[in-house]
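Q: My labmate handed me this sequence with no annotations at all. I'd like to see what the chain might look like in three dimensions before we decide whether it's worth expressing. Could you predict it?
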Amino acid sequence: MKFVKPFNSSIYLFLTVITGVLSGCNYDARLFKKAKQNFEVGEYEWTIREVKPLAQRYYRAKETNYFVAESYRLSNRIQYATPYYLIAKEKGYDDKNINLHLAYAAKANGKYADARKYLKEFIDSKPSRELVVKAEIELDNLPSVEEYSKKPSPVKIQGLVGNTNQAEFGPIKIGDELILTSSKKPLIYKNNGLPFLGLYKARLKSPGEIEKLELFSANLLDANANEGTPAFSKDGNTMVFARGNSGKSKDPSPDVDLYISTKRDGNWSTPERLAISDSIGWDGSPAFSRDGKTLYFSSNRRGGKGGLDLYRAPMDNSGRFGRPINLGSTINTRGNELFPYVSEDGKLYFSSDGHPSLGGLDLFVASRSGDEIQIEHLGVPINSVGDDFGLFLADSTQGYFSSNRVGGKGDDDIYYFESTGSEDRWWSNEIMISESGEAAKVALYHLRTQIVNARNKPIAKAKVGIKRNGEIQPVLFSNAEGYLDIIDLNPADQISFNASKEKYLTKRSEFLMDGREIPKQLLKKELTDTTFDHKITLGLAEVGEEISALFDVNPIYYDLDKSNIRPDAAAELDKIVQVLKDNPAISIELGSHTDARASAGYNLKLSQRRAESAVKYIIEHGIEASRIKAKGYGETQLINGCSDGVDCSEEAHQENRRTEFKITDLND
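A: Here is what I predict for the chain of 668 residues:
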């Protein structure tokens, strides 16, 4: 008989427990590693699902709680982050910004005293100057926030019957239908765990109830991307909407861009990316002016005031958009401004978390009084401690907006509002006549234009051709102070200038009245005279002069290891084509550059291909080949520190992949 060792139950139990513990530890470690990977690629909902159980078991408590809190913040759900930040802070997680995040989380929950406490603690920790300013602004805003929380808005609201447990927002009423954005696509967007967003429509059973959602148009559907927030032209045949955030590593548009589609024979065309979109920025929430000649949108492109800013871009009669213009620091803040909407009376409604807000985004209205823009908070219940955005006015008594406030059915919901009968309505566009029969108030508008040189000195006897709403006007000449004759304006005027002077470069410029008219209910006097100033700067025609800044031409950029002309580059080259047509005596060099990756020899050849590609585009658009020279500089003229061996972001390398423009010859 073989020898059999007696069974020892105590040893077996001990080994079983130890094996289970080690197995559990290995499982937690693998789960934590996977969650970190998800977090780093922006899959915040997946991170929350994987890390929450670890945080609840206090596995690596300071890290797991911090990752949960950050995932909530970065997926726009900071109101849920407080308990996780507090544990991470208690356990000593090394992030000096935790108190700032806690302040925003407290504010998002309506706990303004806690927000004040955390902001003061954050400022006392001596963070960077930029963050100190940000925190001080929030601290200064809190008294206004507490006042706004008690400000009544003359409306009653109700959740739209037809909201689902997903996201619905950005409503637009067209006829008896509501066009909106909803997360109903089959695939899941890993940032927030909801289905991808798409464009949908629903018939209105009543102002506050919709029937079942239907796909707006199969031609506009990209199952692997978020799409939404449509804007329609006045005739309803042109639509601009936002698309992006597919989450795929090879996505040519890794953020959000604006796309345009037109309706022909009842069908919407395949969308095309708008050239005014910033290829490395976020561009979204578009809206047309009431006359359809200006597109408003939100963007975080370089040169803004803070996070997301509001911009406007004029559209000409051929449907092409001009250079986007920032709406300025009265409207735009260090925070985020988005979801613009222009009413019939020219008021601009928008959402912001940079102006004093109750929690996240609040709804505001901007109107002009004389030469000043006034910003008004819309009060409660239209605003809440949640995000309130996407307002649309159906008529003078009712409308819609979007919110993720507590008590809704889904992530974002649509709300219907109607007037409570108050005469003091922030959306009223009626002209009030006093009982005394006071005469109607009138506003007159004028334009004063000055021609100056690069040192802001006046240029006399400059010749200026003018088009008014597309019609040619008599030529004007500037006087000794550089001024043209005053032009009397009408509310919808679009004035185009073409200014020239011997030895100077001819330059085009534009002045639009869109959005400048004073709402009639804000007129204080029977007659209000308003004069707008417009300045046109002419540069000298000199060999070696770089012309980009003078003509508001941005350097054109290229994708990695590519020389083809991207849509954003084509928009800039179109400006150069116009400059060359307006100035037939000049010749220019197109100098192209690369980043420092790859060998110097290869980059020199690549930059030459890029320059030749740009030259070919210009020649194809009607410019003689003899007037343009292609010059590749390779990596010899980097504009930042991203040289060989330096670890730089893709955005930093992008700055070096450019083409610039300078004058090389003046032909008599």
